[in-house]
Amino acid sequence: MLSAYERRWKKEIGRELKMGCAMVRMYRRLSDEDLDRACRAAGTPKMLSILNDIDLDAPSTVVRRMLCHPMLALRFLPTAMRAVI
User: Fold this and answer.
1) Every domain of the chain and the residues it spans
2) pLDDT in tens for each of the 85 residues of the chain?
3) Is 29 helix (H, G, I), strand (E, B) or coil?
4) What is the DSSP secondary-structure string of 8-23?
5) Longest CA pairwise span in the chain (Å)
6) 81 vs 85: CA distance, rounded Å
7) How far apart are CA 12 and CA 22, in angstroms?
8) CA 82 to CA 53: how far, in whole Å?
9) pLDDT by residue (tens digit) across 21-37?
């Protein structure tokens, strides 16, 4: 009975949990300068419209919404790559 429950919750929210953990790891690797840059970019009208509509329980919504706006995603790419490497 518990194994069926575990399979169901992992199927439903497992991907979001992994994405959230990956985003936290990435955030922890950012320098102060990277965080300042990200905060400045987050204040743009387009980014604010994305951030206002996200679901905090589903961190992948931020990534998906940004990918719909390639120029905005490109603005964050150097910072994200530094955090990954």
Assistant:
1) 2-84
2) 778 999 998 998 998 898 888 888 888 888 898 888 888 877 888 888 888 888 878 888 887 887 788 877 777 778 777 777 6
3) helix
4) HHHHHHHHHHHHHHHH
5) 49
6) 6
7) 18
8) 27
9) 888 888 888 889 888 88
